[in-house]
């Protein structure tokens, strides 16, 4: 084979390889960018603490109802004023007090629940939005009498026997807070926070809270406790960000 023919064959092979590579690139799908879009909402988180010597808790006497007494190992204390050893405070109600009025908001479809367990309301503090259903249920084998005494909403008082159907209620007006007790068991106490928006939370056993899904904006955040009073502070929520908002209470 002459040098001229060898050059022609080599050129043909190179051309075939280049065309094959081009076809492979054309057939390969494009990989979209993996960069996610920023969320349109943010959240507010924080911790509730108490400074100083907390007041003593009130002990409960359940002896008038043998069912309640048998279900609880003494001593039993009211939850109002509870402060953990590290100073954190459970059962604080934290909510957007002002600034959410400009948004069109609908009540959550899922009902909130207030249960009666071992002759104690669980949770001790519960939140609902105006128009959201609150289900009061009983897990106890004894009769309760649920009494709710609002100032801005209608008062109601219903007996609930063991295994009875849930009491389904809604509130028409915001109200912080509504007191609930039991005529049968005077130590049973709970608090219901009714808000005009779904942006609220209750501090857990560790004193921490998180309010999720908050639209961007400037808000007034309120914090309520049954024993140590209330506080408020301004917060600014940015998309995809978590705003820290701690509250420190002291003895009134």
Structural commentary:
The protein has 252 residues and is mostly beta strands. It has 2 helices and 19 strands. It has a 5-stranded mixed sheet with strand order 7-13-12-9-10, with no helix packed on it. Strands 1, 15, 18 and 19 form a 4-stranded mixed sheet that branches. A 4-stranded antiparallel sheet has the order 14-4-16-17, with no helix packed on it. The chain is globular, with a radius of gyration of 30 Å. Residues 1-38 have low confidence and may be disordered.
Please provide a brief summary of the model:
By secondary structure, this protein is mainly beta. 12% of the residues lie in helices and 41% in strands.
Question: How large is the share of residues in beta strands?
Answer: 35-45%
Radius of gyration: 30 Å
State the helix count: 2
Given this structure, which CATH class is correct? Mainly Beta
Say how many strands there are: 19
Helicity, as a percent range? 10-25%
CATH superfamily: Cupredoxins -  blue copper proteins
Q: Give the biggest sheet.
A: 5 strands, mixed
The count of domains is: 1
Give me the secondary-structure topology:
Elements: H1 3-27, E1 42-51, E2 59-60, H2 66-71, E3 76-77, E4 93-98, E5 112-117, E6 120-122, E7 125-129, E8 134-138, E9 144-149, E10 156-160, E11 167-169, E12 175-182, E13 189-195, E14 200-202, E15 208-214, E16 217-225, E17 229-237, E18 242-244, E19 247-250
Parallel strand pairs: 1-18, 1-19, 5-8, 7-13
Antiparallel strand pairs: 1-15, 2-3, 4-14, 4-16, 5-6, 8-11, 9-10, 9-12, 12-13, 16-17
């Amino acid at each position: 084979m002459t040098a001229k023919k060898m050059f022609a064959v080599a050129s043909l092979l190179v051309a075939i390889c280049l065309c094959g590579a081009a076809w492979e690139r054309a057939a390969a799908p494009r990989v979209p960018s993996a960069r996610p879009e920023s969320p349109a909402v943010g959240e507010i988180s924080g911790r509730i603490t108490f400074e100083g010597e907390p007041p003593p808790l009130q002990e409960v006497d359940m002896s008038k109802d043998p069912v309640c007494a048998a279900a609880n190992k003494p001593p039993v204390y009211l939850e109002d004023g509870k402060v953990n050893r590290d100073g954190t405070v459970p059962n604080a109600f934290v909510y957007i007090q002002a600034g959410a009025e400009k948004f069109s908001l609908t009540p959550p479809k899922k009902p909130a629940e207030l249960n009666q367990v071992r002759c104690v309301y669980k949770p001790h503090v519960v939140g609902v939005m105006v128009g959201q259903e609150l289900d009061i249920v009983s897990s106890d084998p004894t009769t309760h009498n649920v009494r709710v005494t609002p100032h801005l909403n209608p008062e109601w008082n219903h007996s609930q026997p063991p295994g009875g159907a849930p009491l389904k209620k809604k509130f028409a007006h915001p109200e912080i807070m509504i007191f609930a007790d039991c005529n049968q068991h005077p130590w049973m106490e709970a608090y219901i926070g009714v808000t005009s928006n779904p942006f609220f939370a209750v501090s857990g056993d560790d004193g921490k809270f998180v309010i999720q899904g908050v639209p961007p904006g400037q808000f007034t955040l309120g914090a309520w406790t049954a024993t140590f009073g209330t506080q408020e502070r301004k917060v600014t929520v940015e998309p995809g960000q978590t705003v820290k908002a701690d509250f420190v209470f002291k003895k009134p």
